[in-house]
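Tutorial handout. Part one gives the primary structure; part two gives the three-dimensional structure as tokens.
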Amino acid sequence: MSDPFVVVQEDVVSAFEQAKTLYASWKGLNSKKRSPQEENEYQFVTDELYSTLTSISNDLEDLQETVDVARDAPADYGLSAAQIGERHNFIAGRRKTIEDMRHFLAQPDAKTSQPAKAPFSGAPHHHTDARGSHRPHAAEFDGHQEQHQILMQQQDEQFDAMLDTVRNLHGIAGTMNTELDDQAILLDEVGTLVDRIQTKLTSARRKVDKFLRESNGRSICIVLAMFAAILVLLMLIIFT
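Part two.
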């Protein structure tokens, strides 16, 4: 059975690679004067980077829960104390990187005040005082996160509506299938009835043909008998 921590850890590593690519694009756009088209691209990359970081943070929370469960009795989960420590360090390091990246993203003058490679370099970063300029940056991030949550909620609602539509279509398809089966049974019954009627009609036609043949033979005999009688009468009239 696969270790859940390893599975989620692989997803986190993959997501960090995506975050690096997005951060490189953001850094290039953030460090120059942007055209209107580049401004749209900049906003898109920023939103995608915030969304990716939020997703990684959620995965790290899940990983932290598994570490907390296994920490008291690592042997029960086939782990050593050293492995627990490595997992804790992995989570802590990724959280620190995310915190640094969010700090850079929240700064309006990030292109001149901080080196862009710091979030992935592992170098220590000194944060501003929470009572100073960091507070509006946090508010800006909260705004982005709220927008992302609203977008995710809208997508969930759309998926639910699509699911309801699929369920309705499935029900309609089932009803149509049942009706087609019933019609097929009716068609079979009609076909059987037509075959019976056809057999009866064939039999009746044969009887009519036979009757007509017999009737024609009798008519000829009657005509000949009448013709013979007329001849006899004529001969009697002529010779008497």
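Part three, for discussion. The helical segments are 4-30, 36-71, 81-106, 110-113, 118-121, 134-239. The mean pLDDT is 75.
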